[in-house]
């Protein structure tokens, strides 16, 4: 659970309360250690932490614009939120590529990666890692994360997740949407792949206004499918 808070000096922060129902605090130690080793413009800053008995919390910088999801799902976008053009989405995608998993934005729409959870940080030489439990959000995590028969978990699993996020940004919808009018459109990656093969991605297909926007969107689609 994440709460919005304010420090004595007036600075807003995001306070993440950790689940302490299992383990001996190792989850908290792992998360603090992982995040404290990172320093990057596209990674949300860990400002501090609290530990009192079984209560534990992480204090992050506050992202006033909320998450990326609030801006890319067209049917859920509220009138008071700005529409993001294909070029803006492309720039955000570049920022996403510089980090991992969950995104938030600051007031200048600079992508910020947040909520590491128990993300396991590995060196690039560790091509295959062992994970006792599958972690991540269904629809974004690679098959090998939850199905051991597919292969070992590696840095390539993050590439898969990145690709799924890019496709969702371009499509302006969840990659799996059972509420669409045609069954062929339920799984967006498969549906859009058919148009890529036919080289038939037109502006109206994605609700875009110009050929230039469509060109950028097509580039993002290709990257997403490659991932």
Describe this structure in words.
The longest helix is centred in the C-terminal third of the chain and has 17 residues, at 155-171. The chain folds into 2 domains: 2-61, Phosphorylase Kinase, domain 1; 69-226, Transferase(Phosphotransferase) domain 1 (Transferase(Phosphotransferase), domain 1), CATH 1.10.510.10. The chain contains 7 helices and 6 strands; from the N terminus they run ββαββααββαααα. With 227 residues, the protein is an alpha+beta fold. The strands form 2 sheets. Strands 1-2-4-3 form a 4-stranded antiparallel sheet, covered by helices on one side. The chain has a two-stranded antiparallel sheet with strand order 5-6. The protein has helices at 26-36, 69-72, 86-96, 143-146, 155-171, 188-197, 211-226; strands spanning 2-6, 12-17, 46-52, 55-61, 102-105, 111-114.
Element pattern in H and E:
EEHEEHHEEHHHH
Task: Count all strands and give the number.
Answer: 6
- Assign the structural class, choosing from mainly alpha, mainly beta, alpha/beta, alpha+beta, or little secondary structure: alpha+beta
> How many strands, what sense, and barrel or not for the largest sheet?
4 strands, antiparallel
Specify the CATH homologous superfamily of the largest domain: Transferase(Phosphotransferase) domain 1
Instruction: Write the CATH architecture name of the largest domain.
Output: Orthogonal Bundle
Summed up, the helix count is: 7
CATH topology of the largest domain: Transferase(Phosphotransferase), domain 1
Strand order of the largest sheet: 1-2-4-3
What is the end-to-end distance?
31 Å
Number of discrete domains: 2
Which band does the percent of strand residues land in? 5-15%
Q: Assign a percent range to the helix content.
A: 25-40%
Overall radius of gyration: 19 Å
Q: In CATH's first tier, which class of the largest domain applies?
A: Mainly Alpha
Globally, the shape reads: globular
Report the mean per-residue pLDDT as an integer: 75
Uncertain segments are 101-105, 116-134
Pfam families: PK_Tyr_Ser-Thr
Organism: Gossypium lobatum
Membrane topology: Single-pass type I membrane protein
Main location: membrane
């Amino acid at each position: 659970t994440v709460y919005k808070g304010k420090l004595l000096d007036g600075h807003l922060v995001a306070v993440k309360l950790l689940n302490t129902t299992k383990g001996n605090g190792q989850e908290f130690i792992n998360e603090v250690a992982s995040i404290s080793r990172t320093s990057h413009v596209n990674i949300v800053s860990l400002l501090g932490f609290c530990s009192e008995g079984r209560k534990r919390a992480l204090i992050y910088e506050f992202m006033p614009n909320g998450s990326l999801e609030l801006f890319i799902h067209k049917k859920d976008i509220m009138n008071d939120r700005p529409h993001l053009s294909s070029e803006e989405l492309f720039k955000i995608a570049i920022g996403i590529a510089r980090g991992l998993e969950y995104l938030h934005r600051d007031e200048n729409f600079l992508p910020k990666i947040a909520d590491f959870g128990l993300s396991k940080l590995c060196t690039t030489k560790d091509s295959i890692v062992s994970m006792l439990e599958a972690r991540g959000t269904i629809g974004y995590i690679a098959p090998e994360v939850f199905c051991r028969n597919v292969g070992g978990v590696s840095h390539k699993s993050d590439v898969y997740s990145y690709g799924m996020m890019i496709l969702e940004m371009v499509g302006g919808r969840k990659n799996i949407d059972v509420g669409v009018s045609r069954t062929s459109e339920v799984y967006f990656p498969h549906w859009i792949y058919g148009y890529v093969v036919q080289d038939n991605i037109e502006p109206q297909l994605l609700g875009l206004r110009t050929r230039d926007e469509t060109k950028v969107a097509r580039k993002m689609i290709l990257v997403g499918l490659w991932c």
